[in-house]
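Internal tracking record. Fields below are filled automatically when a chain is submitted to the structure queue. Please do not edit lines marked as system-generated. If the sequence contains nonstandard residues, flag them in the REMARKS field before resubmitting.
Queue: standard
Priority: normal
Entity type: single polypeptide chain
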Amino acid sequence: MSEDTNRVRPSRGSPARLDDRDRTLLGLLAEDTTRSYAELGQLLNLSAPAVHERVKRLRQDGVIKANVAVLDGAKLGRPLLTFVHVDTTSWAVTRHLLALKELPEVEEIHTVTGESAMLLKVRTRDTQALEDLLERIHSIEGFKGTRSYIALSTYLERGPSPVATG
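SYSTEM-GENERATED OUTPUT FOLLOWS
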């Protein structure tokens, strides 16, 4: 299997066809995924089986990627949130950095345009743990440099909104 075959890529393509009820349902699920189909049905004026079918279709269409718990990094012992811009010498090195996804401190990995090749969102227990992570990155052949931005406070952290735009 080639390296490109193993590569995880974000979903691309045309947007899913969503009506107002789908968008409302997605908003309700984004707030609280523990709501039952019956409760969602009451809020949407639909039967529980109709809500179930909509959720099933939204999963099949890839609109709903997963149901997850939102965890508190500080309460898990990793209060230091940092955004790390990584510069590399080539695209091959940038792809090699995808192996960082195995580290529990790394929450997100994005390839980006601009001065950096990659943007990492990481949470560590303290600055020493951040330094240890940066040392691992610095040891990768073809690595050029990093710029790190430590978040002092987080006022908003959420996924995409289901509200229609445009």
